[in-house]
Amino acid sequence: MAEQTVVGIVDTRGKTCPEPMFMMKTQLDTMTPGDVMEVWGDMANKRSMQRFIKMRRHDLLESMDETESFKMYVRKSENERTDIPISQCTFLQQ
Would you call 31 exposed, middle or buried from its count of C-beta atoms within 10 A (0-12, 13-18, 19+)? Predict the structure, then answer.
């Protein structure tokens, strides 16, 4: 990732859906468009978290897999979709 200042870090490791999405939303609500946050999560929640970012029109700048977790950088969009409920962004785990 090109040098960008991270304005917040969200660590969702150990949390179950949909809590990681609520944690990301809470951080995004404090950010201005163009700001970047670092997000840590468990591999089991990765698809839902990426779907949340895409559906809400934010930019996934980079994603790196670790052994049992991942880290990604997300830039807040100027055109954020706030009308999509978090429940539509999650994949139910079986």
Answer: middle
